[in-house]
Sequence to fold (322 residues):
Amino acid sequence: MRTDSGYARGSLLTVDGLGVDEVARILELTDRLAEMAAAERAKVLAGRRVALLFYESSTRTRTSFELAAKSLGATTTLVSDKSSSIEKGESLKDTGLTLRALGAECIVLRHPAGGAPFVLARTTGLPVLNAGDGMHQHPSQALLDLRTILARLGLKDKSVDEHVLEGVTVTICGDIRHSRVARSNAMLLPRLGAKVLLCGPPELLPEEARSLGGVEIVREFDAALAQSQVVMMLRIQRERLAGLEIDLADYVGRYQLNEERLRAYAPKAIVMHPGPMIRGLEIQGEVADSPQSAIEEQVSHGLDVRAALLVRALVRERRVAA
Ligand code: CP
Fold:
């Protein structure tokens, strides 16, 4: 197990080793920041410098970290692989050291290689926030998903502990094999008492997924849905399929979340999707736009949770609006 210990305080590299107490503290800080007046909030990280280092495309994660940092008064700079010296072959280590020399105090990193945030954190000594590394982890997504579930289930004001999600079953359906979101959620949610069902065909959900612990594999989507209060849909990651052939028509028939299926098996379930979603493939557009959908709320919670992660990374004394 690889954890954040040994790296700069305030790093968030993985949900491995992220204790329930720390999750509770992050969500508490999220609430306090969300309740602050804009002018007050803009003082929290005034003058601090955050670098956004993105080697893969992103809409939600990049924009929410950037807007969150700016709302707290921090200065941000975006370095992407498409328009920087990374294109000329500069290494992750040298890019990180360059950003540090330019005054960056925290780096938000998205990278196609699992483990890259650990390398960056070790070489720079700076707090690093993992914004998604390959097929490995997406810890801030798991935290914003948790906050979305708590809010939708009316549990937001309950204390976050090992029992807060007891009696809640979450189905994660789709391309689990390539999904860092699935991995982070499958690790985090059972720690809070949730039952997690993983659903998908063997090509996208190998039996080895059981090794995540605390999860069950249910191959039949309707059977999983019928047990669930929450369903998280995942897109097929074509960019990571590497020769794997999927019969899309067959996949849609068996695993698409459509109105008919939702009405029949989970008429009250919360529908989630980390995005980007492919309407008409893993999810029908009508379902994504339905009152059961919490997809836009996930994005909004992302802004709040990522603000808290930036404060956690940059403020040693975390008495923000105590
Ligand atoms: N959920 C997520 O990571 O979305 P982006 O790729 O748009 O950041």
